[in-house]
Amino acid sequence: MRKSDKKRSSSLLGGPVRVPLKWLAATVALAVVATTGPATADGPDHRPVADPAQQAEQGYGVEPGDGQGHEPGVEPMPERAPTSEVSWLSFPGGVFAVDSLGHTVRYRACDGDTGRVADPGMRVAAGVASGVVVFGGTAYRYRVPLVGRAEGTLEVIQRHRSPTTLTGVVVTSPQPPTDPIAGARLFPLSGQLARVVADASLNPAGVTVRDLSGRYGDQQIAVNGSLRPKAASVIKLWILVELLRRVDCGQVALDDGVLVTPQDVVGGTGQLQFETFPQVVTLQRLARYLIKYSDNVAANVLITYLGGFAPVNALIDSMNQRSTILARRMLDSAAAQRGEENYTSPDDVVSLLGAVWDGEILTPASRDLMIGFMREQTLNTKIPAALPPGVPVAHKTGDLPDASHDVGYYLIPGTETAVAFLTAGPMATGDETVRRMARTVYDFLVTPSEGAVEE
């Protein structure tokens, strides 16, 4: 695993913010969800029915078919700029996103978030976006290439302070390969996956694969990579990354506690629902259960703790992941029936997984913690079930009656790979489609005739 041990710029890091437990008791999370209607998170709700008076709070590769919402359970893609027109600069403690077609930028770091800011004077020439915007009395002068893996610069200019110059890697989706010749060796996998997708007549499916080891030149391939099904519990990955980002900023600590009450309890997957409340639960345990057990109580409590949907969606926007949105809590059937739904795509998932792996959105310590949680995943009927026993993987599932997903990392030494297998349609046949895609990738990676392993 490549480790990008980046040193922070002290001028951009806010001081630690701690919330005493006695204050937490007075600011209880009140995310109460409806208990009727179809299941809207991993697995059905086997919990006893609660008080009905409780109310809810609001690439590269082969692309067969359009995959753009003409199938049941698939949401049309939102309008977005071409991937070559959007990029974000990764620097210690934050990101600076650029949309050169829309002429907007966004600075999001430990010391603040500008939101999307229009820059009508943005200059785009020779594949580089440059300009200066002023927000809240601070000027941001930037020069950001629109080609991934290039180096960009951002100068933060505040009154009565010396300017801070930040440099970092530019991230696009997908990132270009580091070695196109080696990357070409991954292309045959696209055809193999396309056949699996074509055979899945009941399940619109999409898959994106990115080499992380360098064996295939960090190449990314996809089949229906822009497919946009309901995210199910895959959305929990973004919740975790936003929490760990705040840990990296020194704004919270994993041993901080959150008061969880009986009103926070929902069913579906997870372990917290079987405990006695109220009780204070550490952020460390909430984060671990969020992934290990796909815990819906942990997800809803963390959404409230982070400040609602907006901060998670700000993270998504800052990484220019236009297919993904967090729009409802877990097991909120009323919200789902109103059309408020969480969505993502294989390309967006691999964009997140790649940025985490490369140390572009989290520190190496938080990155390792997140992958460790994913290695502990207890819902193992898809990727792990498709592979021989003992193959190291770190993954996150997502299940709904009309969606089945599994995403994560193949951690085969020397052939580490990020994968996202997403399907819409009946869950049972979707599970099998995910397993077939997962096995197809594995067989390609370990078969010498495909060039994955050289003796």
Can you give a write-up of this model?
With 455 residues, this protein is of the alpha+beta class. Helix content is 26%, strand content 22%. It is built from 12 helices and 17 strands. The chain has helices spanning 21-24, 180-184, 188-199, 236-248, 283-292, 296-306, 309-318, 333-337, 346-357, 364-375, 383-386, 427-446; strands at residues 86-91, 94-99, 104-109, 112-113, 117-118, 123-125, 128-135, 138-145, 151-157, 164-171, 205-211, 220-223, 257-260, 279-282, 393-400, 403-410, 417-424. Strands 1, 2, 3, 4, 5, 6, 7, 8, 9 and 10 form a 10-stranded antiparallel β-sheet that branches. A 5-stranded antiparallel β-sheet has the order 12-11-17-16-15, with helices on both faces. A two-stranded antiparallel ribbon has the order 13-14. Strand 7 (128-135) and strand 8 form a beta hairpin. Helix 5 (283-292) crosses helix 6 (296-306) and helix 5 crosses helix 10. The protein is globular and about 60 Å long.
